[in-house]
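HOLO CASE FILE
Compound: NAP
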Amino acid sequence: MKAIVFKKYGSPDDLQLMAVAKPTPEADEVLVKVEATAVNQADNHLLSGMLRFSTGLLKPKQQILGSDIAGRVEAVGSNVTQFQVGDAVFGDLSGYGRGGFAAYVAVPESALALKPANISFAEAAAVPMTAVTALQGLRDKGQIQPGQQVLINGASGGVGTFAVQIARALGGEVTAVVSARNIEMVRTIGANHVIDYTQEDFTQTGQQYDLIFDTVGNHSVRAYKRALKANGRFVTCAFLPALLLLAPWFSWREGKTMVNMMAKPNQNDLVFMTGLLEAGKVIPVIDRCYSLKDTADALRYLGEGHARGKVIITG
Ligand SMILES: NC(=O)c1ccc[n+]([C@@H]2O[C@H](COP(=O)([O-])OP(=O)(O)OC[C@H]3O[C@@H](n4cnc5c(N)ncnc54)[C@H](OP(=O)(O)O)[C@@H]3O)[C@@H](O)[C@H]2O)c1
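Model generated. Tokens follow.
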């Protein structure tokens, strides 16, 4: 089968389209024919070797990247109970060695859920990692409540476009921070208010929010805190090292909770997202689609940091 392989750490230039052996599913695994995958910033981080202490010191242990998949079940292992051959599924393989940039991948059934019936494979591939990050950030870490003032910093990206819609679906009044070219798009997906970050710094306006969900990490911890109401919550998925030191102090002094989050792939959360997608409360925003052979171009484009929604690989 065809796959995009990296044998050494580097850049998208080090990716090769190769023929590799088609995987055979273990007893608890499902073999999925991949119809679409999404590229994530994590793929670029892994490719660069930034995480080599866990992914292989000198060269990558797993040579096929790609966490988000949507596809059709081709075969099932003897212990698989949830899926049958022919089912349309989607999932996040980041806890299972990845392997999505390929024609087929074998994964434990717990990584998958049935694909929402009303969306395409390309749209389904957009969902798992970034939507679940937004969901866990807003609902679990952010403890969002109906009627709260919620600000999403980086609302036009992969995580942000889901965060805007999930925050609205969970009852928040949403302020989206984007640049001018994305104002119309975030209004279309439900933002109640929009701030153009090239014109206005939301941490300097005096306005305060119950919950700030951040995907960019471009302000100081003190600046983010300034924009939080008393007892407000700040959650970032763009790791801020200073939080480790300062968050306990801010919590003790001002009752403001500020946390770095790391999403955990979770079958229940995929099913939760299916509910929102099938109800039409969340619609994946797709910027561009590339073919598998052009995965390197997709990663380069994503790496520029200005994608509008998700970047998808089909076929
Ligand atoms: N912790 C976790 O579990 C977890 C999970 C998933 C992702 N992440 C991380 O979360 C971050 C966001 O991921 P992503 O997939 O959403 O990235 P992305 O799709 O590449 O985000 C790109 C978006 O960010 C916007 N942006 C850039 N600078 C901005 C600024 N100063 N203010 C507001 N918006 C700005 C861009 O808008 P413009 O073009 O208008 O600039 C663009 O739409 C990445 O660092 C990723 O590694 C973490």
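CASE NOTES: The first strand starts at residue 2 and ends at 6. The first helix runs from residue 41 to 48.
CLOSED: yes
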